[in-house]
Amino acid sequence: NLQESESENKLDGETASDSESKSEFGGSPPVPTSDDTPEVLNRALSNLSSRWKNWWVRGILTLAMITFFFIIIYLGPMVLMTIVMCVQIKCFHEIITIGYNVYHSYDLPWFRTLSWYFLLCVNYFFYGETVTDYFFTLVQREEPLRILSKYHRFISFALYLTGFCMFVLSLVKKHYRLQFYMFGWTHVTLLIVVTQSHLIIHNLFEGMIWFIVPISCVICNDIMAYMFGFFFGRTPLIKLSPKKTWEGFIGGFFATVLFGLLLSYVMSGYRCFTCPVEFNNDTNSFTVDCEPSELFQLQEYNIPAVLQSVLGWKTVRMYPFQIHSIALSTFASLIGPFGGFFASGFKRAFKIKDFANTIPGHGGIMDRFDCQYLMATFVNVYIASFIRGPNPSKLIQQFLTLRPDQQIHIFNTLKAHLVDKGVLGNPEDA
């Protein structure tokens, strides 16, 4: 029996040091959570096998979440940012709760209080930076906001330093190792959850299309990989997720690329999706009206000679953004799932089925957003590397904050540069 139990532990990736850690950390990890399927669905699907029952539960709840997603898009950018903030807090709560359950027996002092305090500090820093960047005129108009903006980073550091000192003062003899472990747990959680959600909001300000298309591609890939795997799956993909199959992985890839092309074509024709989200100081509200950039204007492309004989076309009209959507959907299909595999490894490490049981058939909020956070980072890096150029409005904002003598110096330097380039005529020649 002892040999069998040891072999089972090894198969699950557990070593002797893990077992020792269990006893030191306060016993065995949490028991896997179970989904709270609504009683109405239980009754309606009672005659089905567990496999098909799970299929219907997941399907119905997926449609409900997609409907909710469409509703919040309709309500506008401010609601979207609020939802992102709420999702961030819930994901943080789910991960921190797992750590709290593992070490609850030691009753570590100030653990939960400090965790939430650090969340507040990091959010204050990131959202303060966002407010300064995108609401510059409003900030300059209000004296208290102007002072907070000027000393924002110093205030953020002072807040964090206060939490750091509180942590040091809370250290208890014989539990140092556990407390430092949880200190690291909190900061890694902040890095994964808060930083990524901040990038999602930055993507949103570039235009709602940069928010909707990547998220939709991840959702599509998740659904289509599940569908292909459910009906055609035979070959296991990765041990971390035994239910994932190569058939689902490949089928999800092609379906997601096609979906990304179609969705991008539809959305590229609407200014409300393609224009950057900007704050209107006159109305104190967000606006999404602009002249569409070249990314969202139909252009004619030559089809490769190899495909001309197959398709019967020589050229095709499409939006340049559709080409970028191929990169987004490819990442969502091939690399995005590794966010899910990472989450699966994390859950296996602590012997839990899901992060929580918030959504029946799906687990917790973090179970649904494990791939989205990785996707958000990629989109932000992609925009910075291949899309975004210098922002004239931000340069002007910074220019206006300088002293008059500095503004005159920059003006003369710019004027001399334009004269040398031949853009402006030389006043002396006149």
Automatic annotation (TrEMBL):
Keywords of this entry: Lipid biosynthesis, Lipid metabolism, Membrane, Nucleotidyltransferase, Phospholipid biosynthesis, Phospholipid metabolism, Transferase, Transmembrane, Transmembrane helix
GO molecular function: phosphatidate cytidylyltransferase activity
Pathway(s) the chain acts in: Phospholipid metabolism; CDP-diacylglycerol biosynthesis; CDP-diacylglycerol from sn-glycerol 3-phosphate: step 3/3; Lipid metabolism
EC nos: 2.7.7.41
Chief place where the protein resides: membrane
Listed transmembrane segments: 110-127, 154-172, 179-201, 207-233, 245-267, 321-343
GO BP: any one term: CDP-diacylglycerol biosynthetic process
Substrates-to-products reaction catalysed: 1,2-di-(9Z,12Z-octadecadienoyl)-sn-glycero-3-phosphate + CTP + H(+) = 1,2-di-(9Z,12Z-octadecadienoyl)-sn-glycero-3-cytidine-5'-diphosphate + diphosphate; 1-octadecanoyl-2-(4Z,7Z,10Z,13Z,16Z,19Z-docosahexaenoyl)-sn-glycero-3-phosphate + CTP + H(+) = 1-octadecanoyl-2-(4Z,7Z,10Z,13Z,16Z,19Z-docosahexaenoyl)-sn-glycero-3-cytidine-5'-diphosphate + diphosphate; 1-octadecanoyl-2-(5Z,8Z,11Z,14Z-eicosatetraenoyl)-sn-glycero-3-phosphate + CTP + H(+) = 1-octadecanoyl-2-(5Z,8Z,11Z,14Z-eicosatetraenoyl)-sn-glycero-3-cytidine-5'-diphosphate + diphosphate; 1-octadecanoyl-2-(9Z,12Z-octadecadienoyl)-sn-glycero-3-phosphate + CTP + H(+) = 1-octadecanoyl-2-(9Z,12Z-octadecadienoyl)-sn-glycero-3-cytidine-5'-diphosphate + diphosphate
Region called Disordered, residue ranges: 1-38
Keyword Membrane: yes
Chain intervals with Basic and acidic residues compositional bias: 7-23
GO cellular component assignments: endoplasmic reticulum membrane
Membrane topology: Multi-pass membrane protein
Entry's localization field: Membrane
Pfam families with a match to the protein in the record: CTP_transf_1 (PF01148)
Family named by the database record: Belongs to the CDS family.
Protein name: Phosphatidate cytidylyltransferase
Lineage: Eukaryota, Metazoa, Chordata, Craniata, Vertebrata
